[in-house]
Amino acid sequence: MSMQRLCPPAPSLPVHEDPFLLLDDPFLLADTATTRHVETQALAAVQPGETSLMQRAGHALYRLIMARYPHAQNIWVLAGAGNNGGDAIVAAAWLHKAGKQVHVTWLGSPAQMSSDTTKAVAAAQQAGLALHPLDSEVTLPAIELMIDGLLGIGLTPDRPVSTKIAQIIAAINQLPAPVVAVDLPSGLIADTGAIASCCVRADTTLTFLCAKPGLFTAEGRAYSGEIWLDTLDMALSAPFPPVARLWTGVLPHPPRAHNTHKGSFGDVAVVGGADSMTGAAILAARAAIGAGAGRVYVSLLTQSPAAIALDTLHPELMFRTIQQLDISKLTIACGCGAGQEVAHVLPELLRKCPRLLLDADALNAIAADAALQQLLKARAPMQMTTVITPHPLEAARLLNITVDQVQTSRLKTAKTLAQHFGCICVLKGSGTIIATPRQISLINISGNGALATAGTGDVLAGWLTGRWSAFPDEALQHNMACGVWQHGDAADRWQQAGHTGPLPASQLIDWLLCA
Ligand SMILES: NC(=O)C1=CN([C@@H]2O[C@H](COP(=O)(O)OP(=O)(O)OC[C@H]3O[C@@H](n4cnc5c(N)ncnc54)[C@H](O)[C@@H]3O)[C@@H](O)[C@H]2O)[C@@H](O)CC1
Ligand SMILES: Nc1ncnc2c1ncn2[C@@H]1O[C@H](COP(=O)(O)OP(=O)(O)O)[C@@H](O)[C@H]1O
Ligand SMILES: [K+]
């Protein structure tokens, strides 16, 4: 397999259960340590006389640039002192040979070069391409394209970007020309998607050998643009463990059979909607019906005598008190707009509900109460299944850490929550993570900032619960990942239809239904 676009992805969903990183499966993601192992093995596999990995990377970059930006004549290449800069210099030499006006700013020095970079520099100079130090003027008449080869996987989270490189990054981000990032946008931490202190905002990123999780979660999507992978024609003799998998679609279900009835798709109850927050529970309930649940009950926690007992737009929803429900037979979403009232109902739900999704205020209540935490932990050993859907602040409260700590280690946080509470954790936000105690974590690829509006999380909670009820036999992690993907896909289709603002939560349900 050679170069391919990962994001936006092609409409296919390869699902391998094989927990190994094989370079022919582009949706498996590798952390930096694994990428370095792969690189070492790949380097060892290169036979004398074959092109080096750096030459392959640089040529792949050149081909992508020629394909994506064929009309760019004046190109500014920013090459750092490491191998990331070496890749950029190889591409620069090819662009120069193709007749482009190429200005290379190079931060390296002959004393510090790797052997591959030494060869790349020598070849570029032999081809007549000058490598300029930082303080020289950029002479291009009008820059039409920038190549960001400043920092790749050599950037580690323990060190902010140096002032010199930070200034270049600021300059790149101010110029109107598009940016192609080499391996990673400089400043992005490959393992986490956190930003060291500043980051190049790329339009296109070409990553090498293995896709890195940081491109797809936390800040990654916002800074990477369109993401391409080139495995540099490497075939590995040994497998490597991936750190996560990209989730790029929805698993097909057969059409509803003729001989089904509403009881075939299970009963859902939404428990939430305290005073002045009933809308959250209604959104979740409407989404649950749309996702396929047979019957949906709404149990409002509001004390107000004026509370609604009928959703006139969706009269199929049935309003019941929690005492009227047989919670041992339901799939329940608890927490949407639930306020502090939820703490009173949680003990019984945690003890008796076989399939329980906890969101929002339910998670806040559990974070604040050690006894509820014990009840949650006790569920898995008793064969009761739990899904939690925290946003980063809720996740931070559950683990008693800061939001920043969550966002700089989203994969680890989601896994920790899943293991600690014995549940599936859907850690929301850009690049939602679906983690279980033991399986490889999934990173959802769909969705965008149009979802950053109140109530879309309630819709997700209801949608996931509806799917769980309708497809109880589907592997739960895959079922939840499909639901998360559909939720994001609805927002992607909304944007593709030309909308630029937020997607109101109630309309999100309509877009989910017309997939
Ligand atoms: N070795 C090879 O043949 C291959 C290398 N590849 C490329 O090599 C890159 C990794 O190369 P390196 O290990 O040299 O790492 P990088 O080139 O990503 O970074 C190392 C350089 O960055 C500097 N640096 C690190 N942290 C900094 C900070 N906080 N502020 C300012 N400067 C900082 C270091 O001093 C060093 O000069 C990959 O990202 C990829 O682009 C790939 O193309 C695969 C093949
Ligand atoms: N920038 C974004 N990119 C992708 N998804 C997003 C983005 N912003 C929000 N979302 C998604 O929207 C939903 C918001 O949920 P949440 O924060 O719980 O909202 P609320 O509590 O108001 O319903 C989550 O599914 C989240 O992943
Ligand atoms: K880079």
TrEMBL record:
<feature type="binding site">
    <location>
        <position position="457"/>
    </location>
    <ligand>
        <name>AMP</name>
    </ligand>
</feature>
<dbReference type="InterPro" id="IPR030677">
    <property type="entry name" value="Nnr"/>
</dbReference>
<keyword id="KW-0067">ATP-binding</keyword>
<feature type="binding site">
    <location>
        <position position="183"/>
    </location>
    <ligand>
        <name>(6S)-NADPHX</name>
    </ligand>
</feature>
<dbReference type="GO" id="GO:0046872">
    <property type="term" value="F:metal ion binding"/>
</dbReference>
<dbReference type="GO" id="GO:0052856">
    <property type="term" value="F:NAD(P)HX epimerase activity"/>
</dbReference>
<feature type="binding site">
    <location>
        <begin position="428"/>
        <end position="432"/>
    </location>
    <ligand>
        <name>AMP</name>
    </ligand>
</feature>
<protein>
    <recommendedName>
        <fullName>Bifunctional NAD(P)H-hydrate repair enzyme</fullName>
        <ecNumber>4.2.1.136</ecNumber>
        <ecNumber>5.1.99.6</ecNumber>
    </recommendedName>
</protein>
<dbReference type="GO" id="GO:0005524">
    <property type="term" value="F:ATP binding"/>
</dbReference>
<comment type="function">
    <text>Catalyzes the dehydration of the S-form of NAD(P)HX at the expense of ADP, which is converted to AMP. Together with NAD(P)HX epimerase, which catalyzes the epimerization of the S- and R-forms, the enzyme allows the repair of both epimers of NAD(P)HX, a damaged form of NAD(P)H that is a result of enzymatic or heat-dependent hydration.</text>
</comment>
<comment type="function">
    <text>Bifunctional enzyme that catalyzes the epimerization of the S- and R-forms of NAD(P)HX and the dehydration of the S-form of NAD(P)HX at the expense of ADP, which is converted to AMP. This allows the repair of both epimers of NAD(P)HX, a damaged form of NAD(P)H that is a result of enzymatic or heat-dependent hydration.</text>
</comment>
<dbReference type="InterPro" id="IPR004443">
    <property type="entry name" value="YjeF_N_dom"/>
</dbReference>
<feature type="domain" description="YjeF N-terminal">
    <location>
        <begin position="35"/>
        <end position="240"/>
    </location>
</feature>
<comment type="similarity">
    <text>In the N-terminal section; belongs to the NnrE/AIBP family.</text>
</comment>
<keyword id="KW-0521">NADP</keyword>
<feature type="binding site">
    <location>
        <position position="84"/>
    </location>
    <ligand>
        <name>K(+)</name>
    </ligand>
</feature>
<feature type="domain" description="YjeF C-terminal">
    <location>
        <begin position="245"/>
        <end position="515"/>
    </location>
</feature>
<feature type="binding site">
    <location>
        <position position="148"/>
    </location>
    <ligand>
        <name>K(+)</name>
    </ligand>
</feature>
<dbReference type="InterPro" id="IPR000631">
    <property type="entry name" value="CARKD"/>
</dbReference>
<keyword id="KW-0456">Lyase</keyword>
<keyword id="KW-0479">Metal-binding</keyword>
<keyword id="KW-0511">Multifunctional enzyme</keyword>
<feature type="binding site">
    <location>
        <position position="337"/>
    </location>
    <ligand>
        <name>(6S)-NADPHX</name>
    </ligand>
</feature>
<dbReference type="InterPro" id="IPR017953">
    <property type="entry name" value="Carbohydrate_kinase_pred_CS"/>
</dbReference>
<feature type="binding site">
    <location>
        <position position="280"/>
    </location>
    <ligand>
        <name>(6S)-NADPHX</name>
    </ligand>
</feature>
<keyword id="KW-0520">NAD</keyword>
<dbReference type="InterPro" id="IPR036652">
    <property type="entry name" value="YjeF_N_dom_sf"/>
</dbReference>
<dbReference type="Pfam" id="PF03853">
    <property type="entry name" value="YjeF_N"/>
</dbReference>
<feature type="binding site">
    <location>
        <begin position="83"/>
        <end position="87"/>
    </location>
    <ligand>
        <name>(6S)-NADPHX</name>
    </ligand>
</feature>
<dbReference type="Pfam" id="PF01256">
    <property type="entry name" value="Carb_kinase"/>
</dbReference>
<feature type="binding site">
    <location>
        <position position="458"/>
    </location>
    <ligand>
        <name>(6S)-NADPHX</name>
    </ligand>
</feature>
<feature type="binding site">
    <location>
        <position position="186"/>
    </location>
    <ligand>
        <name>K(+)</name>
    </ligand>
</feature>
<feature type="binding site">
    <location>
        <position position="391"/>
    </location>
    <ligand>
        <name>(6S)-NADPHX</name>
    </ligand>
</feature>
<dbReference type="GO" id="GO:0052855">
    <property type="term" value="F:ADP-dependent NAD(P)H-hydrate dehydratase activity"/>
</dbReference>
<keyword id="KW-0547">Nucleotide-binding</keyword>
<keyword id="KW-0413">Isomerase</keyword>
<dbReference type="InterPro" id="IPR029056">
    <property type="entry name" value="Ribokinase-like"/>
</dbReference>
<comment type="subunit">
    <text>Homotetramer.</text>
</comment>
<comment type="similarity">
    <text>Belongs to the NnrD/CARKD family.</text>
</comment>
<dbReference type="GO" id="GO:0110051">
    <property type="term" value="P:metabolite repair"/>
</dbReference>
<dbReference type="GO" id="GO:0046496">
    <property type="term" value="P:nicotinamide nucleotide metabolic process"/>
</dbReference>
<keyword id="KW-0630">Potassium</keyword>
